[in-house]
Structures are given as structure tokens and as C-alpha cells.
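Re: weekly structure request thread

Next one in the queue (343 aa):
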Amino acid sequence: MLAFRSLRTLIVASTSLVLCIESQAESCSRLMYTTSEGNVVIGRSMDWMEDIKTDLWAFPAGMSRISTAGTNAVKWVSKYGSVIASGYNLGSTDGINTQGLNANLLYLANADYGKPVPGQNSLDVLNWAQFVLDNYASVDEAVKEFGKNEFHMKAKLLPDGTYPGVHLSISDPTGDNAIFEYIAGKLVVYHSKKYTVMTNEPGFDKQLVLNDYWQELKGCFLPGTAEPSDRFVRASYYLNQAPLTADEQQSIAVVFSIIRNVSQPIMKGNSDRPNQAPTIWRSVADVKHRVYYFENTNRPNVFWVNLKKLDLNVDSPVKKLPLSNGEVYAGDVSSQFITAKPF
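Done, posted below.
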């Protein structure tokens, strides 16, 4: 056992060293908490080196869509309405649909989408989260359908000069989870109610190995760096230590407290770590009650959107809650969405 522990320690130390050398990437974190009554609440942080001009959007069912992937772009009509947080108003980074399916798009530096098969339909990775929210009511449905790997994923240049390497996590009101990653050109799907935490690189399978090691220490000490593997460990530990509650307000507070713990402070640039990014916003989704909470880190308040107070039926207008010009909100903002042309 001692030799085995020593070997695992060496593996963890070696992997951490690789991360310190190679993990020059924008970072995000995501976690799922289940209340004592089985309600599901998901929190995520958006960490980026610059303002990504996020607005909140309310998209109704019945919208005709076409991916921005260019040749052989995927086309679809949305089955479900959704509320999402945009990135550069080029794509959806995060959101929840009217069935309670939640999607979180996070950075993954080692994502590799491979090469397209001739004639294969293409989906821009910035349309990935929206495609899932538009088309699926549950995690199981998304795994069975999107898991067929019928599309070629395509990454286009972002305004900050980078190509988006990303992976996608989804959750639903049953507490089911799935994580989709493209590694070495192939789609890998991790599907289990146990997969309640996701950060960034390395791939999810390696994150699980690293986390197992730290969990055996039972919180004697926790890794404290901003590296994705350390944030994964801290989120997992605090999630396991979180009190079980049936109180809706308390459950939201629990998730915000943990996602803030694994967030990045606002700092000046570090030339040695040019892409270790500060947290620019956080979201928390109560999927049972269909309420989407949002917090900009440079503004004073948490506010929220109740999907049940929005008209997201077929033929309803697209609406937007402007955030990208420094607008400040508090409390329930469901009535403050304005009609807008979709991006």
C-alpha cells in the first residue's frame, strides 16, 4: 500500500508539473449540488482574460437555426425555449431550457475536433450549447442522439485572437450529468450522476484520477493554486461537505459559496501566466424551478430570471437583457427583457 501511495503521489506531482507548464488557458469551473429533496442546482464561473460582452437572451421555441460553421452547416428548428448567456454575442456559453436542461460550455486547451468526413455536416463549437438546449429535454436524450457523433465540430477565430477549445457539460432535473469532450479527434462522453464537477484540462478521465488521490486525504489539506486540477479538487471537497437542505434560498447560497471559492480574483496581468484569467461572471441554475441566477463580478448585485415568467412559446419574440454596457440589475429581472434581433 505504501508503494502504491508513493506511485500515486508521483503521478499526481508529475501531472501537476505538466499542468503548470502547459495549462496556459482561460479557466472556468462548474459543479452540481443536489438538495435533500432531490432538487438540482448548477453553478459555473466564466473566467476570461477580457470582457466577452455577455448579454442574457431569451430564445423561444420554433426558431429556425443554422450553424455559423460555413460549408455543410447544420440546420435545425428549436424544440424548446431557453435563457442563455452569450459570448461576444457570437454563441451561447451557458444556459437553461424550458425542460430544465442546463448546459455549460467551458474551456479545454487540449480539445481536438479532428478532420471532417467528406459531406459531413459541421457545427460551430460556439453553437454547441445552443444546439443542445434547442433539441434535447434530458441528459439521456442528448447522450443517445448527440453521442452518435454525426457532426464535425468546427472552431472559428474569436475576437481575442484565439480558437475556442471547449468541452460541454449538461445536467437535468433528475440529477443526471454528461460531459462531452473531443480528444485526439474523437468524441468522448462521460455520463453519470456522479460527474458533478468539471473544470478544464487535462481531460476529464485524468481529472477523476487526480481527484481520487486528494479525496483520500479527507481534507487534511487542499491544493490551493488556480490550476484546473486544484479547482476540481476544491470544488469536489466542498461539494461533499455542503449541508443538505430543502430550503430553496439556502441551496442557491450553497452553490454560490462553492463556485466563488473556485473563482479567480481580479488581478493585474502576469507575463509568466498570460492566460490565467480572472472570473468575469458566475451563474447558478435552479433547474426544478427554472430560475437562472447571474452575477457579474464587477457589479454589486445578484439578479435572476424566472423562465416561467417569460413567453418562450413558438412565435414569441426573441428578447435580450442587455449587460454588455455596464447595466446594473438586482432581484427578479424577468420583466426587463426587451425585444431584440437575435445574434
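The longest strand covers residues 40-47. The longest helix spans residues 2-22.
Next request, please.
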